[in-house]
Amino acid sequence: MENQVNPNIQNNSSVEQVPATSQVLQTQSKSNFLPIILATLISGIVFGVGGYYFGKQASTIQKVTENIQTSPIPSSPPVLSPTVEPIDSDSMANWETYNSSEYSFKHPAGLKSDTGAAGTGFESIRFQLIGPKQIASGRTQTSLFDGYSFIVTKMGIATQKTPEQWATERRNDSKENCGSEVILSDVEPITIGKATGVQYSVKNCIGDYTASYLLNGTNVYEITQLYVGEPVDQKAYEEITNQIFNSLKFL
C-alpha cells in the first residue's frame, strides 16, 4: 500500500504543466512574429517612400512634357532675298562692248569673262554673272545655280558640219542625257544680222539654256545662253541673255 501513487498528485502535476507549455509556445510565437512584423513595417516604409519619390518624379516629368508641348517654338525671322530685275533698253547705253576679230556684242558692265576651249578644243569666250543669292551662300566656286552665262564658241567650218547638223546632234545629246523631265523645243531657223542658222531651247537639264548655231561666211558659231535660279530671277536672266544675243554682230 505504501508503494501506490496518489492519483490526485499525478493529476495535479499534469495540470500544472499545461500553463508552462502554453507560455513557452506563446513566447516562441512572439519571437517568430517579431521579425515578420519588423520586415513588414520596413517594407511599407521603403515602398511608401519609393512610391512618393517616383510619384513626384512622374508628376515633374509630366509637367515638363506639358510645358514643352504647350510652349510656343520660336520662329526665325524670314530672310528676304534680292530679286533680279530685267535690264531695259535705256540701261544698255551703259553696257560694255566685247570685240573680237570676227564678232562683237554688248554686255552689262562688271561681268566675269574668260576664254578657253570649252572642253571641245574650239576657241570660245564666256561672260558670266554670279547672282546675289549664290554670292550670299558663299558657294561661288561651285557650278552656277544663280546667274547666267553667255558663251560664243567657234565650232569649225560648215563643210565639216552645218548649223542644222550641230543643232540636231546636240539636241539629241540633251534628250538622252538630261533625264525624263527635260523639255526640248523644236529646232527653229534664226537670223542675226548677216548670219543665219538655227536655235532651240532646253529646260530642266541642270540649268535652262538656249543654243544657237549660226553660219557667218564659212564658219559655224555656237552661242549658248545659260540662265539658272529661282523662277522670277531666272526669267530676268533669260531676258538679259536675249538682249546680249540680239546685240551680236559678225564682222
- Per CATH, the superfamily of the largest domain is Mog1/PsbP, alpha/beta/alpha sandwich
Gross morphology = globular
Helix/strand/pairing class, anyone? alpha+beta
User: How many strand segments?
Assistant: 11
**Strand coverage percent:** 25-35%
CATH architecture of the largest domain: 3-Layer(aba) Sandwich
Ends apart, CA distance between termini: 169 Å
The helical percent reads: 40-55%
What is the level 1 CATH name of the largest domain?
Alpha Beta
Order of helices and strands, N to C? HEEEEHEHEEEEEHE
Summary, kept brief:
Helix content is 40%, strand content 27%. The protein is of the alpha+beta class and 251 residues long.
Q: Can you walk me through this structure?
A:
This protein has 251 residues and is of the alpha+beta class. The radius of gyration is 49 Å and the shape is globular. The chain folds into two domains: 1-72; 97-250, Mog1/PsbP, alpha/beta/alpha sandwich (Protein Transport Mog1p, Chain A, 3-Layer(aba) Sandwich). The chain starts with 6 loop residues before the first helix and ends with a strand. The chain is 40% helix and 27% strand. The protein is built from four helices and eleven strands.
